[in-house]
Amino acid sequence: MAEADSPDVPPAPVPETPAPVRVYRHRLPTRIWHWVNAVTLLVMLMSGLMIFNAHPRLYWGQYGANPDRAWFAIGATSDTGYVRFGETRIETTGVLGRWTNAGGEEKTWAFPGWATIPTSYDLAAGRRWHLFFAWVLSVGLTLYMVWSLFGGHIRRDLHVRRAEWSPRHIWHDIKDHARLRFPRGEAAARYNILQKLSYIGVIFGLLPLMIFTGLTMSPGMDAAWPWLLDLFGGRQSARSIHFIAAWLLVLFFLVHIMMVILAGPINEVRSMISGWFTLPPEREGEA
């Protein structure tokens, strides 16, 4: 028996892929300040480690010298390198305190040459690098703060709304980050509560703290602004706070880089170069 001709059935429509949506996320002053700061803070960290190598010990109060008990120290014995926090001592031979350079020579500086500017011990050069870029940091931060205030960046992007202060809202964002569940769609174009608190803490907390504790260590500034010594509890306390704040900035940088990589490095870096950010598509069921 001949089979009956089956009626023509139109093919099922292929769902169209929505065109990617691009938004202007970062304005020019933000992008300039971001990249200038990236270079500035790297140079200041490496030159600061060279300065620290001259006396790798930290104290609290007004005074501190080799005979005094330091709360933190990096040092070396005849055959080991070590880091000491209070009474706790950790051996760090080959990394800190005692290490071998590329030429096979054993050195007993606190931080190795690859981590410092300059790479060979030179306190005067380290100070010149550090103080020059300290001016770049200070002037850049001041201009960025003024622009953020009068250009609406604080009101538009960094202002924490009342609903965002809710413990439930903050805990929800923490859980999403822990699960690597990043915002998508229009939500990806806005800073979440953790980003806002981090950026506010760095811009209006850590960076000014670095500048003012740095000024406190300057004898000339002590003469002009003696209240700085009272504010930070002495020159050695200011030096300790300066060191701690520097490593908190390093921690912020590492977390920031990790988040950029996990969220999509090409899109994130491109947006900080051109300003334009491609919104990740909504997850199914969330549109």
Keywords for this structure?
4-stranded antiparallel sheet; globular; 287 residues; alpha+beta; single chain
Write the layout of secondary structure elements.
Blueprint: E1 22-24, H1 28-54, E2 57-58, E3 72-76, E4 81-85, E5 88-91, E6 99-100, E7 106-107, H2 123-150, H3 153-158, H4 167-178, H5 193-216, H6 219-224, H7 227-232, H8 235-263, H9 265-274, E8 276-278
Antiparallel strand pairs: 1-8, 2-3, 3-4, 4-5, 6-7
Helix pairs in contact: 1-2, 2-5, 5-8, 8-9
Question: Can you offer a commentary on this structure?
Answer:
- The protein is an alpha+beta fold.
- The protein contains 9 helices and 8 strands.
- A 4-stranded antiparallel β-sheet has the order 2-3-4-5. Strands 1-8 form a two-stranded antiparallel sheet.
- A hairpin with a 4-residue loop joins strand 3 (72-76) and strand 4.
- The longest helix has 29 residues, at 235-263.
- The mean pLDDT is 90.
Mean pLDDT: 90
Percent of residues in beta strands: 5-15%
Provide the structure class.
alpha+beta
Question: Strand arrangement, largest sheet?
Answer: 2-3-4-5
Number of strands: 8
The stretches of 5 or more residues where confidence is low (pLDDT under 50) are none
Distance between the termini: 52 Å
Helix content: 40-55%
Number of helices: 9
Provide the gyration radius in Å.
26 Å
Shape: globular
The H-and-E topology, N to C, reads as EHEEEEEEHHHHHHHHE
Instruction: Describe the sheet with the most strands.
Output: 4 strands, antiparallel
